Amino acid sequence: MPLSLTEEYKEVLTAPEYLPCISLIMPFEPKMCLETELSYKLDNAADRIERKLKGLYTEERVECVMKSLRFLLKSLDYNTHKKSIAIFISPVFEKVYYLDIPLEEKIVIDDSFEIRDLIYSKKEIHKYLLVVLSNKATKIFLGNTIHFFPVVLNVPNHISAYINEIPEKVANFSDANARKELLLDKFLRHTDNGLSHVLQAYKLPLFVMGTEKTVGHFKSISHNTKHVIEYIHGNFEDKSEVELKAIMDPYVTDWKKLLQHNLMKQIDDAMGAGKVAIGIRDVWKDATQKKGRLLIVEKNYMFPAKLVSGDGKFSGYDPATNNAFYIKDAIDDIIEKVLASGGDVEFVDEGFLSDFKRIVLIDYYKRP
After folding, report:
1. Measured distance CA(344)–CA(288) in Å, rounded
2. What is the rounded CA–CA span in Å between residue 256 and residue 252?
3. In the predicted model, what is the mean pLDDT of the chain?
4. What stretches of the chain adopt beta strand conformation (E)?
5. Contacts for 95 with CB less than 8 Å, ≥ 6 apart
């Protein structure tokens, strides 16, 4: 069965005679957890579903869907490298999604299956990168609302490693301050090269800490300033990891604003690389071709559409005309296509993408 829920199924699933309708969304990372542990959690969720159903439906109906659900649970692929699963099941329909995005556990009974429910269940782990600069050393950390730990650079993180790289004519300068300035720039340039590799692995909001002088040097030589959300001035050289995380906490409190700022930076980068689709038709085309790494769409944006050719082209459509051959919401179909090809989806506030026709798809590419 194709990934997309057909319109015929969407119609029939709301009919009383085809209830109960169950959605089970769960974290599912067999490579990170023991199979027995995951199996226990899934069985426990099934038991809770069964208890709820017994208070709403006849024994015959409960037995019908629970038999299908428990069979699906025993048939799951524990060799997958995905992060979550979503199971949709009713007396006439069953489907399992294996997804690359982390999801919170969620059980829904008797509501129709909506692909947006998957995104709304996405686990929001507020990750960010922090660079702590001084005139002697650099530290980089990966942080979130719970954890905070160092990231190892692929270059030396102390200025002493670069002293012998200063040319002799510079080393013989009588002006010691000029030599220190050149050495600091040399050190920060190597640090910036290492940071570029980190940003390839972690496409996250970036913060930079340091004295105004050191940060000023960094800004003048860095190729990564466009990724910086905020510069935090001060001397943080001797601060512990606990102290640094405490300093960062207020900066990540308004995560929605921070996230949307970072998303706009990603859009700008993708536009510069020519790897972005803007507007419903171009986004549909790239999603159909499995190019999409990240779909960004305004909340509540819906687009009823009518297929006009066999190659997937469509036009806007008024559902009030009651024609059976239309897509009730092309956005939901696009979301399914992006998730199926291993991409991710982010919803943003209405108006955030007003310059981008309300929907953007960033394609897979190597970010500079």
Report:
1. 15
2. 9
3. 83
4. 22-27, 84-90, 93-99, 106-109, 128-133, 138-143, 148-151, 206-210, 228-233, 276-278, 292-298, 305-307, 314-316, 344-348, 359-363
5. 1, 5, 87, 88, 89, 113
Report pLDDT digits (tens) over 189-207: 999 999 998 988 887 889 9
Topology of domain 128-253, CATH: Nucleotidyltransferase; domain 5 (3.30.420)
Instruction: Give the tens place of pLDDT for each residue, 124-155.
Output: 667 899 999 998 899 999 988 777 889 888 88
The full DSSP string for 190-239 is HHHHHHHHHHHH----EEEEE-HHHHHHHHHH-S-GGGEEEEEES--TT-
Token couple for 45: 């969720």
* Contact status, residue 153 vs residue 138, Cβ threshold 8 Å: yes
**For residue 289, which phi and psi values (nearest 5 degrees)?**
-85, 10
Sign of CA dihedral 330, 332, 338, 341: negative
Phi/psi at 123 (nearest 5 deg)?
-75, 120
Under a CB-based contact definition with an 8 Å cutoff, are residues 105 and 90 in contact? no
How many C-beta atoms lie closer than 10 Å to residue 207's C-beta?
22
Instruction: Indicate the range of 61-75, 152-166, 269-283 predicted with least confidence.
Output: 152-166
Query: Tell me, which fold does domain 259-363 have in CATH?
Result: 60s Ribosomal Protein L30; Chain: A; (3.30.1330)
User: 251: helix, coil or strand?
Assistant: helix
What is the SS3 assignment for 141?
strand
Whether pLDDT at 323 is above 50: no
Q: Give the count of alpha carbons within 13 A of 279, CB side only.
A: 6
pTM for the model stands at 0.62
